[in-house]
């Protein structure tokens, strides 16, 4: 899948292209700064910048992390999408996820919602959505698809 396709389809990340651009502008420099400090923090046999280059640029690292967090897509699948090895995706998610968490973007690991009823219960029933809740609970003959 291409970067453009992932960014343009809001269903994939759950975010608009503008929000993704804001995240890149805000989190990208933090990632770069941490990456550079990791490189400089240990004794080196080669100069900084020598050796293998990143296979995934920061934008791709961010997108892979967002898709993983939103859909729980495995690192193997993301590796196929981005044309890299699974370990590259694992490293990318491991580097970007803490930066998103510092910004307040987290997924609670203790919440496991397995059914639509559990999702509705977890979120509460927003105003105007009572018919869908009634249908899920079996409280009436409301159509299954009730949109806003």
- Count of DSSP-assigned helices: 8
What is the strand tally?
A: 0
The amount of helix comes to 55-70%
Average the pLDDT over all residues and give the rounded result: 76
Report the end-to-end length measured between terminal Cα atoms.
Answer: 31 Å
Q: Topology as H/E string?
A: HHHHHHHH
Shape: globular
Structure description:
With 148 residues, this protein is mainly α. It contains 8 helices and no strands. Helix 3 (17-40) packs across helix 4 and helix 4 (58-71) packs across helix 6 (86-103). The radius of gyration is 20 Å and the shape is globular.
What's the quick description here?
With 148 residues, the protein is mostly helical.
Provide the descriptors you would attach to this structure in a database record.
148 residues; mainly alpha; 61% helix; globular
Write the layout of secondary structure elements.
Elements: H1 3-8, H2 10-13, H3 17-40, H4 58-71, H5 75-82, H6 86-103, H7 116-123, H8 130-137
